[in-house]
Each structure stands twice: as C-alpha cells, then as structure tokens.
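INFO batch 0412 | record 1 of 1 | parsing
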Amino acid sequence: MKVAIIGATGVLGTSAVVALVAAGHDVVGLARTPEKAALLERHGASPVVTGLSDHDGLVGLFAEADAVCNFATSIPVGLSGVWPGAWRSNDRLRTEGVRRVVAAAREAGVRRIVQESVSFLYADHGDDWITEDSSLDITRATEPVSVAEAQVQDYLCDSRAGVVLRFGLVVGHDPMTRWQLRSALQGRPIGLGDPEGWLHPVHTDDLGTAVVAGLVAPSGVYNVGAEPVARSEYVQAYGHAVGRDDVGFISPMMSRLAGARAEPLARSLRVSSDHFTSTTGWTPNHAKFDATWFEDVDMTAAEAAR
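INFO prediction complete | emitting tokens
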C-alpha cells in the first residue's frame, strides 16, 4: 500500500514511518526542509518537500496514494504551554491544517484518511471505564481536536474511509517525557489532577504499529493506548526512573493558574482500547506502564521543531 504522511518527522510520524516501512508499505512523507527530507530517507521513506499551505503540492504528494495519514502537530513542551498564544500553531494545524489535508486528499482521489486525535477529549469519568461511546467534554482547549475529527467524518462516503485514532498521553522517546524526567530529577512536581485518578498512556514505540493497524480498520473512532494507570503510580515511576522518592503533584492552585489548557490533561481517564484490539488485532508491545518505559530515553536530547 502506498501511504502518504503529513507530520512525518514528528514523534508520531517517525514511529509511523518506521513501522509502515517495516510492514512493507511504500511511504512518502511531507518534508518542509532538506534536513527533514534526509531524515525521512534514512528511515526508508520517500520525501516530498512542500508545505500544508501548498494545495497543489499536497495533491502531488497524495497522487496515487492509497491512504493519507495526518499527524501534523506543534505541541508546546513543558511550561511553554502556559504562555499566551503557545497553542495557536497547534490549533491551526488541527483546524485549518486538517481542512487542507482533507481537501487535497479528496481532489487526489485518496480512499482512506487516518487522523491523529487524543483521548483527553473525554469527560472526567472518575473510576468508570471509558469507551468510544463515552461522553466528551469539549472546551476551548479541546475544540480544535473535535473540529479535526469532524472534518474527517465529513470526508466519509461509500467509497472513502476515515479512521480517527484517539491516542493516550505519549510517553517514551519524546520531548515531553524528557522534560518531565528532567523536572523529576530536579525535584519539581510533574503530576496533574487527582493522584487517585486515571491516566491513559501510550508508548512511542506503539504509535506506529497502531497506524499500521489503522490502515485496515473500518471507518470510525478508536481509542489507542496501554492499560490505564493511576496518576499516583505514573508520578512514582518518574521518581523511580531518576532515583527520587519526593516527586509530587502540581497543586490545584498552580494548575488553575496554568489555564484552560491544563484542565483536560488532569481529567481521570480510565480509557479502554479493547475496541481497537478486537477490530484490528493490534496490541501494544508496552501494555502496562512502569519505569522501564524510560529505558534508553536521553534526557539531554535537543528538542527539534517538527
């Protein structure tokens, strides 16, 4: 299958490229710079240097593709996420960016779109299990993600498929994990929400295999991640990884000061991925979160822009 990827050099995109190439797919990826193009080539993909604002370039990228995977994001790392306007670029990618991808895919005659989404769209459900039918809580912070999902739903017809993957909190070889490990090492609090609440994690290595499975999934929305973990255990694992037992939670007052963007990340999300597994056969290699998820994570790695 020929697969075109937007956001091919980000955390999710890189994992997807590696997994898709390993599975025997012909992968082409959008690269904004020659350096990004070289990175894609090293992973076995064919780069096309263009941008989301170039409609003709996107149509050309999607030419003869059997599927388009859109993973374009611009997630601020750490405390930079509380700065005014920090999420503006990411919001545009999930609204205007997805609109451009869908329009180009429609013109190019692409039959399938796989769109990245996030499980913190769900409302806080306490200890109750969350499935794809559970209620959402759409706020100013989560609305762009909801808009992205809706645009993929609008793409559907008898001859076109749309798959939305609601990933959990990404943990592993990614900028946010490295930032949290450095913060834990310095004794700063990293936990959000109720320590007895639930968190839905997914390891970076499992992102790509989920995308491979998404290429054969029927149209729909799917939760993707490992077993939910208690937020207290999540924070303790970071402490264990850096050799500290005093890593704690950000206070409710400080969380409120962080603004509306922090609230969805603090929700209790006991999310089940059983529907995706039963439909596609996908299972995560990292099925249960613990401190081993941080093995080989380089805390000193420079954070490059996608």
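INFO post-check: The chain has one domain: 2-294.
INFO record closed
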